[in-house]
Specification:
The chain is α+β, with helices and mostly antiparallel strands. The protein is 15% helix and 33% strand. The strands form 2 sheets. It has a two-stranded antiparallel ribbon. Strand 2 and strand 3 form a beta hairpin. The chain is globular and about 30 Å long.
């Protein structure tokens, strides 16, 4: 089992402006229903660019375990 960091979104704080999607260098994030989600977590490099540009601080990197 390995541990990785992936973006986690607080839906209540997200304003859906898409800045995080635009900032993602691997195009791992997409907007779905006005909220970012990670359809391809294996492509995420945990750079944190999405969290940095989020105007409301709705995105944080969280450690997740993968088998």
């Amino acid at each position: 089992m390995t541990a990785d960091e992936l973006p986690a979104v607080d839906d209540a704080r997200c304003v859906g402006d898409g800045a995080c999607v635009a900032a993602c260098p691997t195009r791992s994030l997409e907007l779905r229903g006005g909220v970012p989600w990670l359809p391809r977590p294996a492509d995420c490099v945990a750079c944190g660019a999405c969290a940095v540009v989020c105007p409301t601080g709705a995105i944080t990197l969280r450690t997740v375990s993968r088998e």
